[in-house]
What we know:
By secondary structure, the chain is mostly helical. The protein has helices at residues 10-33, 43-65, 73-85, 88-100, 104-136.
Amino acid sequence: MSQPATQPDSAFLLGIAAGGVVGSLSRYAVQLALPHTAGSFPWSTLVVNLTGAVAMGLLVAFLVARPGAHRLARPVVGVGVLGGWTTFSAFAVDTVTLLETGHGGAAAAYVLSSFLGSVLAVTLGSIVGQRIWRIAS
Length: 137
């Protein structure tokens, strides 16, 4: 039987919120730096999602290597910063927009590069993180 969920404290909630602000504003900056119009390839969304996947792999490797890490590391960085940084909803809208504007090939390439790229990116981040934190310990 699972343990009942505990109520998060204010540091937990504020940490996630602050991390979300950092991640979201950073993602917006990338969107400004790499703008795209309807029907053009959404490089900004692909960049944030792939780099977010690498960062998630690094975070997981860190947390596994450091079981005594601060209790807010995972929620602030994983849920807050990386949750604000990455964006599935923009990925979905970009894909539909590519399809609606007659760019089916680009939509397929985008979906494939996003999904496969993200899985590979998490794997890469995890492998690199395991090596970094094994050396550092």
